[in-house]
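Question: I have long wanted to understand how a fold can be written as tokens. Here is the record:
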Amino acid sequence: EVHDITVGMQQRVEILKALYRGADILILDEPTAVLTPQEAQELVEILRSLTAQGTSVIFITHKLNEVLDIADRVTILRRGRYIDTQPTAGNTERSLAELMVGREVNLTVQKDAHEPGAPLLSVRDLVVRDDRDLEAVRGVSFDVHAGEIVAIAGVDGNGQAELIDAVTGLRTPVSGSITVKDRQLAKASPHQCLEAGVGHIPTDRQHRGLVMDFSLAENVALHDFAKPPIARHGWLSPRRMVQVCEPLIGEFDIRGGGPETRASSLSGGNQQKVIIAREITRDPDVLVAGQPTRGLDVGAIEYVHRRLVAERDEGRAIMLVSLELDEVLGLADRILVLFEGRIVGEYAPGVTKEELGVAMLGGTTAAA
């Protein structure tokens, strides 16, 4: 049955379905987002064989290395507008990034060596069930120290979402403990987790991060609407909400509107900046970042990476969950691989994509 095969094999079934129906043009939208490096390479070989047989392939991706590896020609879009079409031969990741953003982009994450402090987040023997009441997280234990970014890597659907929900109070674990600065949060509500010093950049910015019909000022105030300076003696002040939001728009380079602009009118990257502004300015001890750059252009990705490193350098403990191996390798001080709800390996940032890919498919259970 389809649910018993790997995501990479499921991808092949999708392609077979399209070809069986006699498709001459195959459109693939971010097809490698949930694949391991090995599966992604297999997909590339399949696409090359199809184009050799006369099939036309439109490959939509924001991964510049894939563009250069796969495509014959590349068309660049920026904010919904056509910019240019060029042959990939002779182009580089940097040249494509500059066309996409309209300025020079730093594609490498700039960060100094970290000096971790005391553990701020401690997870022990955590067991969490998913929406089908099946065990999604199975006895996971790890620490995240002050001044450290720990990345959780893995193929999508291996317990990452349930782990994030448990740490942020959105899902109650079956057993185990979650401790933030000696405060036990395994049974805590989302509000109690926020008050205990947990910040959360959610995977789905539009459904869990923002209220799309609210203004930017209202979205920034979501956590602290009942506290001074936004509220006094039980009364909420729209004027003070705007006053709190206004400087954040400049500090976090939020473009596309002011404090009274609806969140729905902003681009994805600027929506993400609103969430980052809200979560960081609350000065959390632990910041949980779930796929913080998903769907963003290279310019917004550069900004998000820079802010996460800055928060690490200020002594926060950051738990990064990402499907992007380049992001994991660029940001992480330690990498934990999650497979079928268990941590199957711990790696230093110098690990290769191939080694991580093997672990992500359950090929090792030993820490490296």
Q: What stands out?
A: DSSP finds 13 helices and 16 strands in the chain. The first strand starts at residue 25 and ends at 29. The chain has a mean pLDDT of 90. The longest helix spans residues 37-52.
